[in-house]
Amino acid sequence: ELTDLFDVQDRITRAVASSTQTQVVLHEGNRRRAWGEAGFQDLRDISKVGWRYIYDLKADSFARVLVLAEKALRINPEHPCGHQLQAAALYHRALQGYSEDSARDLAEARESIWTAVELDDQDEYSHWILGLTAFHGERDVTLAINELTRAIELNPNFSLAHAASGTVYAYAGMFDEAMVSSELALRLNPRDPSNFFRYSAMAVAHFTIGKYDEARVLAEQSLRSGPGWRVAHVIRIASLVLLADIKNAERSVANFLVPWPAETVESASKLPFVDQKYNDLVSDSLRKAGLSDTTREIG
Question: How far is the C-alpha of 206 from the C-alpha of 78, rounded, in Å?
Fold first, then answer.
């Protein structure tokens, strides 16, 4: 049917636009990073390299972004670039578990990104980060969804905002909305190196409705492309326990402690569920799988 053809064309166009946006960020960031950072005086170069480092999702890469953000702020504190990069680095550092004080990082990230939005209300990346900090910092589901919706209004092909919406909906216990947003993000941008977050969000969504085998499978899919992602480890372990597969749950705990040797039941179960009952369920499951309540000695 002609209407079906137009729908397919529209979906292909959106997917190409979204995927291209990410690949340009990665490619341009790599090119400028190869030039060396010391001589950067152009905010465009700083922004491109900074976002490329964000995609690395490593502690040292976030530290580099914060240095670049400070440089951008010295060049022009009235431009959103430095504030935006600073917020993105602090937020992702907290999200990945690299913060010494995650609450402080999230609070500072939100302050920085508010400034970026005030300086330029038309940047979808700023609304995306504001939505994420509103949720992960304060569990403000309404503000988070409003900001992510605004990011999508500015750029309907912005897969990161669709993905973030899926994450918020998953932790809020809104299964259908979580799946629609996460699956759309994957369709729009199947080559995004951060897609392990999408599978993790879908795992969380299935966990909240008691579909533990599906949650386990999706968590494992997340770990294949993001083997160090804490949330996927935790949901996999908890799902295995709730499936009465204690032996594999214990093995999963051992695998989890390789990248995260200091994790305890308390730290690992601090997932941003809106309903505390899910955190309690995770805590109980992790304990049954053999994760300790105290940090184990290393070495």
Answer: 43
pTM score, whole prediction: 0.86
Per-residue b/e over 146-180, b at no fewer than 16 CB within 10 Å? Answer: ebbebbbebbebbbbbbbbbbbbbbbbbbbebbbe
**What pLDDT, in 10s, does the model give residues 225-272?**
999 999 999 999 999 999 999 999 999 999 999 999 999 999 999 999
Amino acid identity, residue 90?
A: L
> What is the spatial distance between Cα 93 and Cα 143, in angstroms, rounded to a whole number?
22
Contact predicate 238/281, CB 8 Å: yes
CA quadruple 118, 123, 124, 127: dihedral, nearest 10: -10
Calpha distance 133→36 (Å, rounded): 31
> Would you tell me how many other CB atoms lie within 10 Å of the CB of residue 189?
27
Determine contact, residues 177/169, Cβ cutoff 8 Å: yes
Return the axis-axis angle of helices 196-208 and 230-242, rounded to nearest 10°.
30
Other CB atoms within 10 A of residue 39 CB: 8
**DSSP-assigned letter for residue 209:** T
For residue 78, count other CB atoms closer than 10 A to its CB: 9
Do 246 and 291 meet the contact criterion of CB atoms below 8 Å apart? Answer: no
- For the chain, give the longest Cα–Cα distance: 66
Report the alpha-carbon distance of residue 293 to residue 183 in Å, rounded: 36
In this prediction, residue 299 carries a pLDDT of 44
Cα–Cα distance between 31 and 51 in angstroms, integer? Answer: 12
Yes or no: say if 276 and 263 are a contact pair by the CB < 8 Å rule.
Answer: no
In angstroms and rounded to an integer, the radius of gyration of the C-alpha atoms of the chain is 20
